[in-house]
Design brief:
With 472 residues, this protein is an alpha+beta fold. The protein has 12 helices and 12 strands. Helix content is 41%, strand content 11%. The longest helix has 28 residues.
Length: 472
């Protein structure tokens, strides 16, 4: 009988998955070995009477060999209990190189905008300030260029045109997304990018990193990412989904903190807590950043800024943006329902309806949700030239799981509320809160809002005694 070839030395020793050339050679040897098995099996000649049946069995047998051998190898690699191969783990999580993402500092400033309403007056204590009005309406052509971590004023990154950023924020009305707060979109896009970089660094080992407090001490705890999810969806997608979810949780905390009178400005931001457009706008920002990362367009601050600028305008165009004057009329329609133009900042009665929906499914509040009237129908005929008849609300999902695995199993937003919040009624049942506590906290806020702003505060529908101040 002819002796088979001597086994190659490389076939007798183990190969680390971190050794790229060794892995390629092992795979090549395996494929050649399988072909040798196939060739040997096809040499078998069955009797004439049973030829068809045996050939069919051989074909089935060959396919089973080709399928079972790789699966057996996978089972040996991934199902060994209590085995931790650091080199294998390093290679396994190598799908997202954090060098591909700009290593930018955490956004340190929130953009100073926007209270829900139009031409809103300001008062200090109970004294109105004549001549001071908050102008916060813009249109899609006035967005300017996005600038990562822009506050009231920011310089351009090196390599960008000009010296001072021309980025603009404000609110505009869209046919499918209702009111969109552009400052919330931008802030959440920036933070989601920062989260993705940090999660990518901790994907294999786990760990934690602190984030800006907003009335509390906060940190994000990341556990080693679920291996099955990484195999199925690849590391980039798992990181992106987790960053998007964590950013949305952090944005919910912002609404909670401002309700309990933490503020990033010299005025109380309680009137803007859970305002009709906030959470929906937050989620749009997180999804924009997620798309930029998926497209691998965030390797530098300049590239990221340009990508967000383009994608923000594209997203708004698909939502059907109204021009500035039409957005002003949209605000006028819900004046007397969702907000009260006779009130001034920082009066909490300024915004009469609050949106407490934290997902996972979010639908925008639209003008028709407040109730139909002759004034709205007249405007709708005008708005149709921009909406092209498509008024269907675009529902977004703040996905809280991937492949059936809850994202909370891989990350936690940990919060230690500060004195300002506790002094203003924050539930003090525990010194530490997480995103798991948000539903209970928001229920308490909703009860307090009903006591102050009336029953039905959490619904867009006009209540008894509420009607639009706009006339045809």
């Amino acid at each position: 009988m002819t002796q088979g070839p001597e086994p190659r030395e490389s076939a007798t020793r183990s190969v680390s998955l971190a050794n790229e050339e060794g892995v390629k050679q092992a795979l090549a040897d395996t494929v050649l070995g399988l072909w040798e098995i196939v060739n040997n099996l096809t040499r078998l000649q069955p009797s004439r009477r049973a030829r068809y049946r045996v050939k069919r069995r051989l074909r089935v047998g060959l396919w089973l060999v080709l399928l079972i051998l790789p699966l057996a190898a996978c089972q040996q690699k991934w199902e060994q209990p209590n085995v931790r191969d650091e080199e294998m783990e390093s290679a396994f999580f190598a799908g997202l190189d954090t060098k591909e993402l700009a290593d930018l500092p955490e956004p340190s400033r929130l953009r100073p905008c926007c209270v829900f309403g139009h031409d809103i007056g300001v008062q200090i204590r109970s004294v109105p300030m004549p001549g001071y009005e908050i102008q916060n309406v813009l249109d899609i052509d006035g967005l300017g260029t996005h600038k990562y971590n822009k506050g009231a004023l920011a310089l351009q990154a090196r390599g960008e045109d000009g010296v001072v950023s021309d980025e603009a924020s404000g609110i505009l009305y869209t046919c499918r997304g209702g009111f969109i707060d552009i400052s919330h979109v931008r802030d959440n896009a920036d933070r989601a990018l920062f989260f993705a970089v940090q999660i990518g660094r901790l994907a294999a080992s786990g760990g934690s990193f602190p984030i800006a407090g907003e009335g509390a001490e906060r940190r994000v705890i990341v556990r080693p990412l679920d291996a099955r999810l990484v195999r199925t969806y690849r590391i980039r997608e798992v990181v992106v989904r987790l960053a998007e979810w964590l950013d949305f949780q952090a944005s919910i905390w912002h609404e909670i903190a401002t309700w309990y009178k933490w503020s990033s400005t010299r005025f109380s931001e309680q009137p803007s807590a859970f305002s009709p457009e906030d959470l929906y706008s937050n989620l749009i920002g997180a999804k924009i950043a997620a798309t930029v990362i998926r497209r691998q367009e965030a390797s530098s601050e300049i590239e990221y800024n340009r990508a967000v600028t383009a994608l923000l305008k594209d997203a708004l165009a698909k939502l059907g943006p109204l021009p500035k004057e039409a957005t002003q009329r949209a605000f006028a329609y819900v004046d007397g329902i969702w907000w009260d133009s006779t009130k001034r900042v920082p009066d909490n009665q300024l915004v009469r309806h609050r949106n407490f929906n934290i997902g996972p499914s979010l639908s925008p509040w639209k003008l028709a949700d407040a109730g139909r009237s002759a004034a709205l129908e007249a405007d709708r005929k005008e708005f149709d030239q921009f909406c092209q008849g498509n008024w269907a609300p675009l529902r977004l999902t703040a996905a809280d799981r991937l492949g059936g695995v809850p994202l909370r199993k891989m990350a936690t937003l940990e919060i230690r509320p500060g004195e300002v919040l506790v002094a203003n009624g924050f539930p003090s049942g525990s010194k530490v809160a997480t995103q798991e506590d948000f539903p209970t906290i928001i229920q308490a806020i909703a009860r307090a809002a009903e006591a102050e702003l009336g029953a039905g505060v959490g619904s867009p529908l006009a209540r008894a005694g509420e009607s639009t101040r706009k006339r045809q």
